[in-house]
């Protein structure tokens, strides 16, 4: 082989080696040992949850479940849940207890697609995949909050854009996304190291044989799979809440600055939110829109900030128009359920998650009637 040929082959071999090493970060075992937090695990499982939902509530399976439920009523036996509830929200709808829900609502099976710092683009993506699989959920709960519609919030780019979507969704909605967002997605789609960058502290722990976070990652992975997407997290945890009001205020200020900073309405996210609602209407799915509660210090800070208050009122008017006859459960005012225990400015204590979901389930009949009215 000539010297010139070797010079041509060597860069190709180096590039191939780079891609092979890069793809190691796609392995779950590698990510569990190198990521700074379990966020990617929540997103990863949602793809598996889509497949599970499509299998368990395909048109044929849904019909069989309903027929079995009718027979069980006559015989007094216990049948599998014959109604499918789909929940899509942020971490504020992620951590309710699966077993408690099943005990309280035995006719329902829940599929929780909530992920940290969520956005309407993710709603549209998940619902597209659900409906194209042939599944028709019996009830859909969507979270909505002004922070999801802030053009300059880094939340969308650090969560949804980094860990979710597929190439088909990006290309089919190319005209909606910012070009920088498309470039960022393509970079992470091509290079696993960009999508799942290893964290120096985790690498140091791994090298020193003292990975204190590994049990959290393993338990998160196990629990999420066993509970149809419900989250496991060290915060919130049962029986603990923040008792210092000043600490809550400091936490609230940080969250407000991160999610609501330089607030400007995102027409992109509004277009995706309207698409998600349109999908639910077209498929006659009973829908509830919910705004979870935040701590009193954070709620006060949001109300006292004139810019945020202005855009919150704008968000409310646009939401009322977009949701049409779908009911809206706004818990920000503390009615009909008030949580007085929070682990930080934005997140309720664990004990409040289940009552919030119970309140949402009470609106099923109203949501069903609203879905029917849309097709009269």
From TrEMBL:
Highest rank taxon of the organism: Bacteria
Pfam families, sorted: DUF1574
Protein name from the UniProt record: DUF1574 domain-containing protein
């Amino acid at each position: 082989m000539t010297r010139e040929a070797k010079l041509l082959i060597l860069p190709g071999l180096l590039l191939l080696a780079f891609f092979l090493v890069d793809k190691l970060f796609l392995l779950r075992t590698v990510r569990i040992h190198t990521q700074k937090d379990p966020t990617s695990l929540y997103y990863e499982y949602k793809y598996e949850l889509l497949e599970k939902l499509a299998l368990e509530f395909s048109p044929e399976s849904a019909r069989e479940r309903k027929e079995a439920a009718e027979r069980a009523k006559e015989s007094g036996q216990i049948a599998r849940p014959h109604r499918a509830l789909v929940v899509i929200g942020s971490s504020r709808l992620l951590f309710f207890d699966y077993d408690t829900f099943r005990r309280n609502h035995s006719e329902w099976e829940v599929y929780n697609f909530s992920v940290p710092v969520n956005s309407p683009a993710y709603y549209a993506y998940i619902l597209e995949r659900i409906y194209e699989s042939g599944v028709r959920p019996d009830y859909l709960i969507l979270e909505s909050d002004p922070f999801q519609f802030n053009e300059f919030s880094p939340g969308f780019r650090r969560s949804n854009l980094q860990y979710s979507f597929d190439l088909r969704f990006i290309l089919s909605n190319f005209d909606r996304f910012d070009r920088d967002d498309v470039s960022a997605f393509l970079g992470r789609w091509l290079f696993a190291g960009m999508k799942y960058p290893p964290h120096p502290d985790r690498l140091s722990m791994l090298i020193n044989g003292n990975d204190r976070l590994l049990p959290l990652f393993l338990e998160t992975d196990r629990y999420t799979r066993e509970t149809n997407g419900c989250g496991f997290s060290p915060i919130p945890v049962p029986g603990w809440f923040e008792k210092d009001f000043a600490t809550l205020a400091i936490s609230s200020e940080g969250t407000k600055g991160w999610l609501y900073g330089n607030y400007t309405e995102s027409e992109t996210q509004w277009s995706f939110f309207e698409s998600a609602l349109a999908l639910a209407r077209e498929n006659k799915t009973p829908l509830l829109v919910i705004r979870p509660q935040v701590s009193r210090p954070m709620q006060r800070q949001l109300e006292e900030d004139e810019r945020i208050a202005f855009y919150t009122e704008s968000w409310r008017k646009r939401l009322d128009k977009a949701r049409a006859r779908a009911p809206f459960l706004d818990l920000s005012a503390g009615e009909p359920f008030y949580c007085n225990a929070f682990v930080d400015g934005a997140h309720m204590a664990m004990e409040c998650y289940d009552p919030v979901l119970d309140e949402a389930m009470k609106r099923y009949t109203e949501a069903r009637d609203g879905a029917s009215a849309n097709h009269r």
